[in-house]
Amino acid sequence: MQGTLYNPLYIRLQAGFSQWLRILNFEPTSPRDMPKMLTEFLIWLQDNGCHRPHDIRQEHLKRYMEYLHERPSKTAAGAISLNYIRKHLQVIRKFSRYLTESGQESFTVKLRIKGKSTNVKCILNLAEISSLYEAVKDDTLGLRDKAILALYYGCGLRKNEGANINVKDILLDKELVYVRKGKGYKERYVPLAGTAKADLENYILYARPLLATDKKESALLLNVNGTRLSGHMAYERLQKLKAIAKIKKPAGLHTLRHSIASHLLHSGMALEQIQRFLVDIPGKLTSNS
After folding, report:
1. Which of 87, 91, 184, 224 could anchor a disulfide with 37, C-beta 3.0 to 4.6 Å?
2. 103-107, 214-218, 243-247, 275-279: lowest mean pLDDT where?
3. How buried is residue 259: exposed, middle or buried, by Cβ count under 10 Å (0-12/13-18/19+)?
4. Cβ distance 250 to 259 under 8 Å?
């Protein structure tokens, strides 16, 4: 029978891991199921004399996998499935990644379970992000490419959010981007500063007028025909930049969102601040904004 998690460090880390999952916007069931699996792992660790992540060894992981193979299923007769055990190992890997990205003592996971691993998210490191920017040409479409990177990396927008941004949503004087309500998401304001602000301003002033064949077009990002650039086309532009930069990792627009979250976390920004930046917490403009 499973015990109770009482280790203060593990209690804090479990709460941080749960919040990290919500912020990075993993698949919808992750924030619900993965913390429960992590809790079971942490209870097993504390009950087996391992009280800090730094002390976790491969032997602990092997023994935990053996424990899972032997424990009965909580929802059906018999033992738990191999696929469910694989999900436990996936949670442990994500926990290790969370610790590393948040600058806390972590551990390595060398254990493998035969079979295909699913739902693996990757991020681009700072050097790879820099190489994307270096791959951008110094022309009209290059200015637009920087605007794409500004929205999806600098502002951490989702694929459709970036595609739906209009010119009037870029509030340069207030250093904000208004993200309109999308399917299943709330409207919010995202801070705009530094390189992202400069890149969007340069695009609006110098490149967009050359692409806009219809002055009444409201879309911020335009294709060569002067109409709204779709999320798919923005993805294709990212793939071209990735090829020029010789980045081999699979990466899409959502990878940029995951990457900025990871970089902010690693830089020391509090999880609560990152959550306000990326997740659907409505923002309000006041007369003093």
Report:
1. 91
2. 275-279
3. buried
4. no
145: Cα within 13 Å, side-chain hemisphere: 18
| Sequence-distant contacts of 146-149: CB under 8 A, at least 24 apart | 146/199, 146/202, 146/203, 147/199, 147/200, 147/203, 147/207, 147/220, 147/221, 148/221, 148/229, 148/234, 148/237, 148/238, 149/199, 149/256
| pLDDT higher than 70, residue 26 | no
Share of the chain above pLDDT 70, in %: 85
Q: Which two tokens stand for residue 90?
A: 């996936």
Average pLDDT taken over every residue of the chain: 85
90 contacts 119 by C-beta, under 8 angstroms: yes
- For β-strands 188-191 and 176-179, DSSP reports them as antiparallel
SS3 for the chain, per residue? CCCCCCCHHHHHHHHHHHHHHHHHCCCCCHHHHHHHHHHHHHHHHHHCCCCCHHHCCHHHHHHHHHHHHHCECCCCCCECCHHHHHHHHHHHHHHHHHHHHCCCCCCCCCCCCCCCCCCCCCCCCHHHHHHHHHCCCCCHHHHHHHHHHHHHHHCCCCHHHHHCCEHHHEECCCCEEEECCCCCCCCEEEECCHHHHHHHHHHHHHHHHHHCCCCCCCECCECCCCCECCHHHHHHHHHHHHHHCCCCCCCCHHHHHHHHHHHHHHCCCCHHHHHHHHCCCCCCCCCCC
